[in-house]
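Field reference: sequence -> structure
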Amino acid sequence: MHILSEENIKKIANQKIAFDAVEQAFIAAYQQKGNIFPVVHGRGCDEGNTFSVKSGNLTDLRISGLKTGSYWAGNHLKGIPNHGTTTILLDEGTGFARAVLNAGYLNGLRTAAANAVASNSLARNDASTLGVLGAGHQAIFEIKAICAIRHIKKVLIHSRNEKTVSKAMMELASSGIFAEYADSETVCRQADILVTVTGAREALFDAAWIKPGTHISAMGADQPGKRELPVELVLKSSLFADYPPQSRVNGEFEAAYGENPDLDITAIGAVLVGEHDGRTDDDQITIFDSSGIALQDLCVATAVLDIAIEQGLAQEVDF
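Structure field:
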């Protein structure tokens, strides 16, 4: 069995690897060349500690496995992140673990790559202003991923905590991306591409603030009850998701689906293979919901693991 540390993953993983792997995962999900199993939500023994398990397989590629995402509320007191991510790839011949990856950094890349894949397909060709609601760790991944695939002239960020915005702006500047702080209404009204990346459970803004032609990537809703967008806006927009069945019960479109059980949601994979037009005019408002699917994790982990083994960066142990 191979063990791959976060330190060594950082030597290998990059936006291009993540983009290509996530695109592959979305196409496989749409073409049903694999299975996505129900998400399991659990709790640790102590109050405030939670985890989820996402699992699946890719039948053509012969990959099976799972990802656990945890939130341990007191970790920051120990000098380690509250969020933890572990990906386990199984041996198709035996069912035993063939690799275990500390996938915290990889999860950031993979999540942002989903945004980049969708935005690249759905945003207007002339989109040049990126607006972001949320300024935490993941927001930085999201901004870098969009700037890597589109010619972004202005980046506007809003968060209720201005200190996190300042910290994000400094980190982005070190990568050559210069962002500005703005209030939430300004961010929404000016954005050609709007990214929401928070843990919110109610709408972050007024639907009237979104101009025609905006593309929105809703990245935060990954559990029942979470949402970032006004239902009014969702009901009048063109909707896309990594996995539509999950987005109705475990993602951004849950509340809107409760109001309209006939809600039309297109798998982003259909756009990627040319079986759906995606954006059809410059005034259309498009929304992509990323609730996250295991196939993303399996494809990204496999791509990185193959390189790590080739470069001697994966530790091999008896199991």
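Note: The chain has a mean pLDDT of 95.
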